[in-house]
Design brief:
9 helices, homotrimer, about 75% helix, about 200 residues
């Protein structure tokens, strides 16, 4: 079970890191910027959660292979000429998995730390989205999660509750986890495909 | 005494949360953005203080009702058509109370954690202002506290010292607290009314 | 040895604080802004490291004289008419020392906390650069470290490894520290002088 967690967390780190490389290169950054932004996007959400819950060492210090992975990824992708053309069309898919997995893991860590369900669902969303939020703020953009992009944090919030409710049923923790992640992934991909957004009532 | 603290902290959370809703809606954000920005503005300052002082669980996890309050507030205010017209004219008043209360509570928590008076006054100011700073940075604005807006952090700094000096006098802690908060509120409202600002010598 | 550390850390705080004053004044901020930005640039990197490593109290709370120093510096430099004309030409030199010292101290603290070499070198770079990153983000600029400015984080990264490798040799810790700092300073000044940059392949 635990090694199953590790594999999926690794995948989530990899996809977030890749998104970071693309964002940093679009901003014209050099290797230091590309590496830093990938690192921040891959580890920002989980680190915020760990600091809030006082879990030490932080997850990327406890599992150092994650840091090597992002370093390698940033190095390799710095050599590719136009990663956007290769990746951006398909990036939604691993990104949706990353969101789902980080979110459900974050919810699960929060519950183990003794928080209530509501707080656990918030920390799940923070784990899934805050890396991107911090990364985009550093790149001087208003975080896309907060504006009217297709549903993102909402998918994480719903998936988090599905995971917690599923654990009330006679299913294994692994089953509940898969259900939660699946809901996030499907909801997110549907939101991208049909361009589903929350209403907003901006007032300029 | 402690339930007196709770009530006023609740009020501070509510006013900061409201300010967050207005800021997020002005930026054209959807519900996720409105909720997140309110949450960050209401809890950012106190969380920064708690992380710096290593106080766990963070105050909004220990007092979960604060999180429900902000959630409810963001939900209700998302339905209102033009909250600005209703609120912005009067928002200075609860906002001044929020600033004063967060600031004096922050100072008091820092002193209990064993810091010196100078550090305690800085952490008071951080508690009172950093939610807004983080929120405005996320909304891609230079924090209004740092530019030449009417006195804001200065009021918190002065009130924090009034509170600490008042505790040297033969008054109860509650009396010192009320004195500190009153100074912040009066100074801040006076600054808004007469447009008092610190001099600045920008050099473009 | 320890008081040697203190003196150099004080110097690093002073130079970062000065850089903060210049940045804040260029942005037209008032005294609160000048003080806050100096404080954030001087203490942001070390605080991030301390929070990540769970070192409490944070270094500027444990060594309160640093906070007084920045306060005094910001106050004095707020009176100077045009600090840029006096300082900006020569600021690279103390800034390079600040970078080197914060970085090597950060690496050393991380190693004492039991991290691996790779994580220690990352935390060294974070200590040396994150104050500036946070400060520039607050001032609504894309951090200069991440874009194609002359080598900065790279110098810190290399110096950090020189320090760790030097400790394998039969030299004192002080010797290794001096070697690490010297490498950072020389590399950084050379990068400024010859305008050395990492390649970048922005794709607009």
């Amino acid at each position: 079970m635990d090694s199953f967690f590790r594999v999926i967390e690794l995948l989530a780190v990899a996809t977030s890191g890749m998104y970071g490389v693309l964002l940093a290169r679009r901003k014209g950054m050099d290797f230091v910027g590309v590496f830093s932004v990938s690192f921040i996007i891959a580890f920002g959400g989980g680190s915020t959660r760990d600091v809030i819950l006082d879990r030490h060492p932080l997850f990327w210090i406890a599992h150092e292979e994650y840091a090597y992975l992002v370093f390698g990824l940033a190095a390799v992708m710095s050599l590719v000429r136009r990663p956007h053309h290769l990746l951006s069309k398909w990036l939604h898919i691993p990104d949706a998995f990353g969101l789902g997995l980080f979110c459900i893991l974050g919810t699960s860590y929060a519950l183990s730390a003794g928080t209530s369900w509501f707080i656990a669902s918030l920390l799940g969303v923070v784990t899934g989205t805050f890396g991107g939020v911090i990364g985009e703020v550093i790149c001087n953009e208003v975080p896309s999660v907060f504006t009217t992009a297709p549903l993102y944090a909402t998918c994480a919030f719903v998936g988090s509750w599905v995971y917690m409710l599923a654990m009330l049923l006679p299913v294994s923790e692994g089953g509940a986890l898969v259900a939660g992640v699946a809901v996030v992934v499907i909801m997110r991909l549907a939101a991208v495909y049909w361009d589903l957004r929350l209403p907003n009532r901006g007032e300029l």
